[in-house]
Amino acid sequence: MNQLKISVAGAGAMGAGIAQVAATYGHQVTLYDSFQAALDKAKPAVRKSLDKAVEKNKLTAEKADAVMSAIRFTSDLNDISGSDLFIEAIVEQIEAKQNLFCEVEKLVSDQCILATNTSSLPVIAIGSNCKNQERIIGLHFFNPPVLMQLVEVIPTFNTKAAITESCKTLMQNWGKVPVIAKDTPGFIVNRIARPYYGEALRIYEESIAGFETIDHAMKSVGGFKMGPFELMDFIGNDINYKVTETVFGQMFYDPRYKPSITQKRLFEGKLYGRKTGKGYYNYANPSEPKPSNDEALLQSIFDRIFAMLVNEAADALMMQIASAEDIELAMTKGVNYPMGLLQWANTKGPEKVLATLQHLFEWYGEDRYRPSPLLKRVVADKTLFKTR
Ligand SMILES: NC(=O)c1ccc[n+]([C@@H]2O[C@H](COP(=O)([O-])OP(=O)(O)OC[C@H]3O[C@@H](n4cnc5c(N)ncnc54)[C@H](O)[C@@H]3O)[C@@H](O)[C@H]2O)c1
């Protein structure tokens, strides 16, 4: 693999991890942050992560040292000059990102690819003040970038096809699983996964079941590794709520993505979850969870959330947000779902999923539950979802 000069801006959780991955694959890396304190934190964090990899026999001690010395930590943006690829992972604010991209454009050659790791902002808007927009692209890594395989590659209307292809190849060379996503709200994962949280919250708000029971249903009936409330506490209710709110706004307030008052209150009360000691669960003073074991209840909770997830996946496929294969990869590699949602729906029977949605749609009379036309077509044609 050609050794490239890779620059990463933002030495936070994501930027430091991306820099480590790039250096592990033999590149010279410049990790830039405008705050010296962030660099002072990032350096030992990368060292610790490499030491862990050595302990687990994933790296030799020599390789870990080589990776460490391949990363230059700097607070001087001029050090990114000569880069072949620039990856931005600074604070999630459009103006900060737009300004940085304009500054970077002045420092690098026309051949340098400019990528953003944004989770929720339009990629096209981040590069909209740049002179050359053909080399701007999204490279959305998942947290932690060292461990998570999925990378959403997001070309805009302006991105040259060759840039998309070379980013995809580079990510494969870094041992990642790249999927191509349209520059639309939430890309693939953060769009399709919304009902996992939103529908769980709705079920709770209607007093159908408590947090523990909903979590238990998704784990015991569905085989998910974490229930929705455990997962929201793990991600952080600040981050998860903000993503929901952003996707909802960017989808022109489609009721399918409506945020929940419950989560908003947790966010407002700084009950972010594990990192603050309390969220849906109390981590400082844990109590033994007592979920219901009513099998019919557990099954109905799973069926409802599952139907909403499949509906979202079907709609994303219909809207060509990504190919069926990439939708399946995104949900299994990005959020560790036990099976791709389209394949899973095929196994359960698309007609059963449609029946659940139609029941919810009639019962509540809400647009939130409208079945995807693609799901209806698959059922009407008595076929299955294409998954490749
Ligand atoms: N945390 C996640 O789970 C996750 C996952 C995927 C993508 N992202 C995206 O990655 C980006 C970074 O997220 P994070 O969680 O690493 O954030 P973070 O807060 O841990 O790190 C951001 C870093 O950017 C630096 N910074 C802020 N403004 C800057 C500027 N103008 N110039 C240079 N450096 C600046 C800060 O000092 C900080 O070190 C965001 O766009 C976020 O949406 C986050």
Give a short summary of the structure.
The protein is of the alpha/beta class and 388 residues long. Helices cover 50% and strands 10% of the residues.
Task: Determine the N-to-C terminus distance.
Answer: 29 Å
Main sheet: strand order: 3-2-1-4-5-6-7-8
Count of alpha/pi helices? 17
CATH level 1 class label of the largest domain: Mainly Alpha
Could you say which structural class the secondary elements and strand pairing correspond to?
alpha/beta
Q: Which architecture name of the largest domain does CATH use?
A: Orthogonal Bundle
Q: Could you tell me the strand content as a percent range?
A: 5-15%
Computed over alpha carbons, the radius of gyration is: 22 Å
Described by strand count, sense and barrel closure, the largest sheet is:
8 strands, mixed
Summarize this structure as a short list of keywords or feature phrases.
388 residues, single chain, 2 domains, eight-stranded mixed beta sheet, N-(1-d-carboxylethyl)-l-norvaline Dehydrogenase, domain 2, 8 strands, binds nicotinamide-adenine-dinucleotide, Rossmann fold, alpha/beta, 17 helices
Describe this structure in words.
This protein is of the alpha/beta class. The protein folds into 2 domains: 5-180, Rossmann fold (3-Layer(aba) Sandwich); 191-380, N-(1-d-carboxylethyl)-l-norvaline Dehydrogenase, domain 2. Helices cover 50% and strands 10% of the residues. The chain contains 17 helices and 8 strands. It has an 8-stranded mixed β-sheet with strand order 3-2-1-4-5-6-7-8, with helices on both faces. Helix 5 (123-126) links the parallel strand 5 and strand 6 (136-141). Helix 8 (194-205) runs antiparallel to helix 13 and helix 13 packs across helix 16. The longest helix is centred in the C-terminal third of the chain and has 24 residues, at 295-318. The chain is globular and about 60 Å long. The chain binds nicotinamide-adenine-dinucleotide (NAD). Nicotinamide-adenine-dinucleotide binds next to helix 1 and helix 4.
